[in-house]
Amino acid sequence: MKKESRLLRIGVLGCGPIAQFAHFDACRKARNAELYAICDVAEDLVAKMAAVHEPRVTYRDSGALFADPEVEAVIIGVADQFHVPLCLNAIDAGKHVLVEKPLGVTVEECEALRAHLRNVGAHGRASILQVGNNRRFDPGITFARRFITEEIGQRLALKAWYCDSTYRYTMTDNLQPIPVTSARARRPEGNPKTDKRRYFLLTHGSHLVDTARFIGGDIVSVRARLVEKFGAYCWFVGVEFVDGSVGHLDLTIAIRGDFQEGFQVYGEYGSVTCRASLPWYHKSSEVECFSAKDGQYHRPLGEDAYTYKRQIEGFAETILHGVPQHGAGIDDGVAAMRAMVAIARSVETGEPVFLNDVTGGV
Q: How distant, in Å, are the alpha carbons of 135, 179, 268 from that of 174?
């Protein structure tokens, strides 16, 4: 693991599961970043994480973290309901931001964040904000996207699926470190996770929607159905893309079988199939890209697939050297929020819903 001479000094806000499972380790292993600071209101949690990951400084107050002039960028890995307010505070402090997905919980707050980011940028204090859709940094998926852009011509259709498994925690409990918890951790009022329909759509649907947009382009409208049986939730979503192609999204939580995530794309001069593993395996998606131009399948092999680390490296590359990467930006975060709200509205009405017409939350 070779570090570059110039490292982006990152502060991680939130010492909960996603930071423990991903962001702390990814910051330490990224070639162009440094885990400079960690912050959480729970003193015991900060102390335990600092003992393991050895940041230079620790904080218990986000304001103190944002005020530290040595901290160049922050990763916000806290509950969804806190994302937008903390992003606003970080931007006002002149920090670059990588915020966990989803960007927020309502269309209005996400739009307000975008407007504020643009206004700050117009006054010469531009901050880079990216949303933590780490699948964009899966080398198989980036290979497929490049192939789709360069080889298959016009897109005809896209099918994408995210099917969590009843056995998923059997696997992830073995792959992830044992999480450290604290009774002092700050949690949103009302425990939003008890509303399974809303929680699953925000947490897992944000992955599915962003992958569909990353591969298929902007979504114009959706028509969705939801079936709930035996504790499982299944959204089937018809999609219209801006280029005139059609799509189908399958979000099922949870299937009685193995975890499944992937997509298929049909185009004028080829097709693509992708099958993704749980990201905690750090294994590249298996992709098969068929080109009618040479009658052959194409696929990558053996690339680094630690997507959380690659996400931070791309974030740092953009900040340090001004080299645009393919991370999800503020517009992607807003569009994903609109898509999830549109899916929820279509389930309620049984009618197609245009993303530009939606308001409120899931």
A: 21, 12, 43
3-class SS at 293?
coil
C-alpha distances out from residue 232 to 162, 201, 344, Å:
13, 13, 16
Paired residues of 200 in beta bridges = none
Q: How far apart (Å, rounded) are the C-alpha atoms in residues 261 and 25?
A: 24
CATH of 139-303+337-357, picked from 3.40.50.12780, 3.40.50.300, 3.50.30.80, 3.30.360.10, is: 3.30.360.10
pLDDT at residue 303 is higher than 90: no
Number of residues that make up the chain: 362
Q: How far apart are CA 253 and CA 190, in angstroms?
A: 22
Locate CATH 3.30.360.10 in the chain. 139-303+337-357
pLDDT in tens, 248-299: 999 999 999 999 999 999 999 999 999 999 999 999 999 999 999 999 999 9
Of 161, 160, 166, nearest to 254 by C-alpha is 166
Q: Which two tokens stand for residue 140?
A: 């198989």
pLDDT (average), residues 161-180: 95
Instruction: Give how far Cα 33 sits from Cα of 51, 55, 120, 307, Å.
Output: 19, 12, 25, 15
> What's the order of all strands across the beta sheet hosting 219-229?
296-298, 286-291, 270-276, 260-267, 155-165, 246-255, 232-241, 219-229, 353-354
Its pTM stands at 0.96
